[in-house]
Amino acid sequence: MVFAHGFGCDQTMWRLVAPAFEADHRVVLFDHVGFGGSDLSAHDPERHGSLGGYADDVVELCRALELTDAVFVGHSVSAMIGVLAAARAPEAIGALVLVGPSPRYIDDDGYVGGFGAQDIEELLASLESNFLGWSSAMAPAIMGNGDRPELGEELTASFCRTDPAIAAQFARTTFLSDNREDLDTVRVPTLVLQCSDDVIAPDAVGAYVHDRIPGSVLVRMEAKGHCPNLSAPQETTAAIRAFLA
User: Fold this and answer.
1) By C-alpha distance, which of 42, 84, 44, 21 is closest to 240?
2) Is 111 helix (H, G, I), strand (E, B) or coil?
3) CA distance 48 to 134
4) Positions marked catalytic
5) How far apart are CA 223 and CA 243, in angstroms?
6) Structural domain tally of the chain?
7) Domain that holds residue 228
8) Could you tell me the CATH number of the domain that includes residue 114?
9) Rounded-to-integer distance, Cα 80 and Cα 102, Å
10) Which residues does 206 contact at the CB level (< 8 Å), separation at least 6?
11) Mean pLDDT in each 10-residue stretch from start to end of the chain (245 residues)?
């Protein structure tokens, strides 16, 4: 099983979920280039200017580790990175678990992504002008669970450890992406985990992903916010286990 983190995070975001699978799976944790303990010098603005570049990194990782039929668990933007990687390396990835996925964040005709185009431009402008201030305001909203402020504080700290320039580029790459057509390429068993009260990937988005991926399983979780791997690790683990059974 390969666990991939979301924007502004690193592999420690899976510390409450991944160990539960170590007894019966080879568990692989990693940091996307530019985040966590990765080699920042490996960040290539051109390659990593699209989610496809990150998918290529995942494919290289899978092939270097000689993985076959792996379960790719992708949180947030890594869900779409996983979709792209599975199309590039079908021999390596045999199943997808998409946690809070969104193929497009901006609303379109007949499609609800959760944000207007102006909303996204203002979000990106705020991030680029004052990354630390943006992180302090946005991370708790993304996490949700206002009654557990320590969760928002952890996500804020994770954001603030990220290089601002890399974070700004990855944010643009993420929030301006449109991977709706890529959902049609999925040919492996897929689980879609949809949280309640998710400001980043609302319920309509999870339903859309489920509808576009034939045979996928949609689980609407009781967990609130966008990061159930931290806020509801037991529910997240149970949903993945039920899917893999």
Assistant:
1) 21
2) strand
3) 22
4) 76, 198, 226
5) 17
6) 1
7) 2-244
8) 3.40.50.1820
9) 7
10) 100, 101, 192, 193, 194, 218, 220
11) 95 97 96 91 92 97 96 98 97 98 97 96 94 92 92 92 92 96 97 96 97 96 96 98 96
